[in-house]
């Protein structure tokens, strides 16, 4: 008879780089087996005898769950649950809990960092110095790339939940005016502007909403064309929210002042991506790292421990599905 408190973490290196304290999580189990990563063909074997499985991105589909009737609890080491067949888990009586709100400070500061990098042309100046252009300048400074101030500019938010609200507060600290847009598929609200009204007004646009059937390619060629020619676009949400080919084309045409994204439609981009082309100007790409501050990842450990403890006490929290 497997212990109710025997757990396996299938991909703990996706969370812990050796810089986290896992003791709060380990204390919840009689045994916790850690696997750095787990390939699809290894999942079934590693789940044997475990009543609790912790996973960040390893797929837990219906056949996998059905082959492991001893499973009682799935702890998702993230907010997104697309790696778990929630319907199958529900039918099998498996509780699924995720983590929530752990990365707000980390993602918010990354969003503003990207916005500042675009406004100050940080990457262009860094590359210019590395290429020796400053050393060849005719005066004390190099001002080859136009710099703009955020103060007095208008920021458009698509997604004004906890994360969007945190970005709004930081933007307001820089003296920006903040407007919120209507997310496709959601009921209209008086304080949310339709996209066709929002986009022409903003000097910068940041995305903080989930990816679903209604929001996929929410920003396509038509929407990007509605933005001001020097507008800045920052996406730290999901890659599929923007039509990546349309964004690449807009940047090549010089329509936008710049764009930055921490996310792509397929991650990692093993088969390439339109935004990875070498000829796209004024584009910054970071590797889905906005959430990764050590403090944010430690919060995940804490929430996983809380979720496990609450489940064992008969009062499960952060239940999804």
From TrEMBL:
Coiled coil location: none
The D-isomer specific 2-hydroxyacid dehydrogenase catalytic domain, residue ranges: 21-315
D-isomer specific 2-hydroxyacid dehydrogenase NAD-binding domain: residues covered: 112-290
Name of the featured protein: 2-hydroxyacid dehydrogenase
Pfam families referenced in this protein's UniProt entry, alphabetically: 2-Hacid_dh (PF00389), 2-Hacid_dh_C (PF02826)
Upper classification of the organism: Bacteria, Pseudomonadati, Pseudomonadota, Gammaproteobacteria, Pseudomonadales
Family: Belongs to the D-isomer specific 2-hydroxyacid dehydrogenase family.
InterPro entries in UniProt: D-iso_2-hydroxyacid_DH_PdxB (IPR050418), D-isomer_2_OHA_DH_cat_dom (IPR006139), D-isomer_DH_CS (IPR029753), D-isomer_DH_NAD-bd (IPR006140), NAD(P)-bd_dom_sf (IPR036291)
MF (Gene Ontology): NAD binding; oxidoreductase activity, acting on the CH-OH group of donors, NAD or NADP as acceptor
Alphabetical UniProt keywords: NAD, Oxidoreductase
UniProt keyword annotation of NAD present: yes
